[in-house]
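Q: Could you write out the predicted structure for this multi-component system? I'm mainly interested in how the pieces pack against one another.
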Amino acid sequence: MTSPEQKPSPVWPWIVMAAAGLVTFVAAMTVPPDAVQGQLSRILYVHVPAAWLAYFAFGVTMFSSSMYLWKKDIRWDRMAHASAEVGVFFTALLIGLGMIWGKSTWGVWWTWDARLTLTAIMFFVYLGYLALRRTTDDLEVRAKRAAILGVLAIVQVPLVHFSVVWWRSLHQPPSIIKPEGPDMDASMIATLLIAVVSFTVMYVAMMIKRIELARLEDSILIAEQSSAGPTAGDAVAAPDLGGGV
Amino acid sequence: MTSSFGTQVSAIARRDLLRERRAGEVLWVTLPFGAIALLLIPLAVGPDAPTLQAIGLGMFWVIVMLFGVLISIRQTNAETQPQRDAVALLGIDPAAVYLGRALASFSLLIVFEVVLAVVTVALYDVPLVGWIWMPLVMLLVGVGLSLLGTLAAGIVSTGRSATALVPLLVAPLSVPLLIAATQTFEALRLGRSSLMWALMMAATSLLLAVAGVLTARPLQETG
Amino acid sequence: MDPSVEWNWVMFAYGVTYAALVLFTTSIAVRITRARRKLGEGA
């Protein structure tokens, strides 16, 4: 296997990311505003893609975790890790944009509606996954533990989803707070589609670079572990002061 | 070793409970910690009786979820690597170790729940509406939480910062149990059926048990 | 709501989004560079 540091780091993913960002911005700014929501409807063109990616990245992490447990190939673990980090990013962005949307349209930063609550919970599941990966430097132990957590999450998250949705449905406020947003006409739907596709392309490009980073970091860990031998200072012991300490 | 699966499970559970009887950590540390948490809340929220009555039951379940996990962590931490290896070398089914552990956690959790429930009723003056169902709900929560906590503790295992990480992993995934437990009493208070919530807790526990059993061997191999 | 106030919110949302994207991608790029340098000299 060619060592990763000898191949030049690909630049095209950065260009693709910039292009995708630009496309989304242009599309979102040129589409006519919604009749009801006005200019605020433009927020949807980043809010919805962020939501889609947050959940998609989650799915990729869980899928890759299962594949790792099945195939035992460390590359699946890197994919799971990369998607978890990118997923945390989009989840945090989603929560932020959700709060901006809520404050601008309904006047409150947080609404406790099912979707926002679930996103917050999912954020912590992601954080737990990333925190777990920091508990050991052994690549295989780390991969296996993280993958098992991934499988546990797959099993539990649907239940979390149902329980929060039912909880919310029992406490529906009388006012018509509809988190879905306005009913959309064709130009809005088209723009939304453009935004979602661009952001997905951005996700893929991010994943390529993040997986490259994961591979490099794994190589560093392997190099550090294989060179770990007796250190020169091992021969020095604490002085015996005779106090029985 | 040709002992049956059931024998192995009860042997592991008995061993864990014996450890607890000697160390007394749940009784002397975790339980008081949960109780003082219940005490701190009114100090922060204000001793307004109607407010406390309204939040009391919810606070009880939150503390059970967050602090009850400590019971499962303690069990994993109390064991040394040579002890773990000895169990593995004896040929005891890892799934039996998982279920036995969970069973011991469950027994301790029930005690935890009962004592804290008494404290909650005392401090928050919670009306005992529908409390005929409380034993069943405590049982279901105990099963689910012990399965989840034992599994999470097994995943983190000997990793660094286990004490805060296991509760972090358990908290989001315990949401179905938390919501189901609180909504059961909400439903009873409003005269509605709480069967759905009981089923949710049962389903959660079942899925957790399956996940725990399936991942027991891979987890044991990671050490 | 007054359209100019609406635009403020929109610009805020896009500002946050694109600033976050730039920061995140930059952090990946920086970490890659650091890792490659470390592997180049260390290993």
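A: Regarding packing and overall arrangement: Chains C and B do not touch (no CB pair under 8 Å).
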